[in-house]
């Protein structure tokens, strides 16, 4: 009798929960119809997942086929026997194993990323995380944990938030992966990478990153998904990947919001 009563009460509570969830979803939908959510890139209302239709149409999203090593788009599908990597990645592989980018870094995406990165426009974070959950799906499937590219504490104080961490956190949560924001640290306060040559970028971040003692324990033997905002020459991601691998990570993959159009080429 007690068992039957408990089962009946459990079903009743479950039914009430479902009704409550349905009402909340209905309320959110009604609110969006009456007061449509504002676009992140404009004060006007939008239904295009956070962007105005005009901005959405201009973003060049990267679709397969892409290079498995750096995420750059191939001009054509080479078929079943084509190499999954571009010539540059075959000749000189990165320290990270695989890479994916949600879109091309150009005039359309640059403004959105800079508004997020330097304009403190944090509503972009969940939007970019959704983009990455789609473009980096093959990497997320094989990952054990997510690590953001860190900022030095001085830069973090001036910027007030780490843009890579703001994307990595919801991305890890959506994928059900461990999120390790403090595993990797930036131990030297380097100058900005903007305007430097490929060689200058590599020298600027050489030995700039280190894994904490707690981080070593959390990453040892695991496949790590490293998250950053933009991939240009890959110098920063390369330095981070080397630090993680030297500390015991089994492998490192890279997911970024955007990358330059041509592999290992700075935008003009």
UniProtKB/TrEMBL annotation:
Give coiled-coil spans as residue ranges.
Answer: none
Q: Where is the Phosphoribosyltransferase domain?
A: 205-266
InterPro entries named among the record's database cross-references? ComF/GntX_DNA_util-trans (IPR051910), PRTase-like (IPR029057), PRTase_dom (IPR000836)
Annotated signal sequence range: none
Pfam families the UniProt entry points to = Pribosyltran
What family does this chain come from, according to its entry? Belongs to the ComF/GntX family.
Provide the protein name.
ComF family protein
The organism of origin for this protein: Brevundimonas basaltis
Question: The organism's lineage?
Answer: Bacteria, Pseudomonadati, Pseudomonadota, Alphaproteobacteria, Caulobacterales
């Amino acid at each position: 009798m007690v068992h039957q009563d408990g089962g009946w009460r459990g079903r009743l509570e479950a039914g009430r929960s479902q009704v409550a969830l349905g009402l909340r979803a209905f309320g959110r939908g009604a609110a969006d119809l009456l007061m449509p959510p504002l676009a992140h890139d404009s004060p006007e209302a939008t239904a295009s997942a956070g962007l105005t239709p005009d901005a959405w149409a201009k973003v060049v999203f990267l679709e397969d086929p892409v290079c498995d090593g750096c995420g750059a788009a191939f001009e054509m599908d080479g078929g079943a026997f084509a190499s999954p990597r571009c010539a540059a990645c075959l000749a000189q592989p990165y320290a990270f194993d695989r890479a994916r980018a949600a879109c091309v870094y150009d005039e359309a995406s640059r403004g959105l990323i800079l508004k997020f990165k330097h304009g403190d426009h944090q509503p972009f974070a969940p939007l970019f995380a959704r983009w990455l959950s789609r473009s980096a799906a093959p990497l997320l499937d094989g990952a054990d944990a997510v690590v953001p590219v860190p900022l030095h504490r001085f830069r973090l104080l001036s910027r007030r938030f780490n843009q890579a961490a703001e994307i990595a956190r919801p991305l890890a949560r959506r994928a059900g992966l461990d999120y390790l924001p403090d595993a990797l640290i930036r131990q030297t306060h380097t100058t900005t990478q903007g305007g430097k040559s490929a060689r200058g970028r590599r020298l600027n971040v050489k030995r700039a990153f280190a894994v904490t003692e707690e981080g070593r324990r959390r990453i040892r033997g695991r496949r790590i998904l490293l998250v950053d905002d933009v991939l240009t020459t890959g110098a920063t991601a390369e330095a981070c990947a080397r630090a993680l691998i030297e500390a015991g990570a089994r492998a490192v993959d890279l997911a970024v919001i955007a990358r330059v159009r041509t592999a290992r080429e700075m935008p003009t």
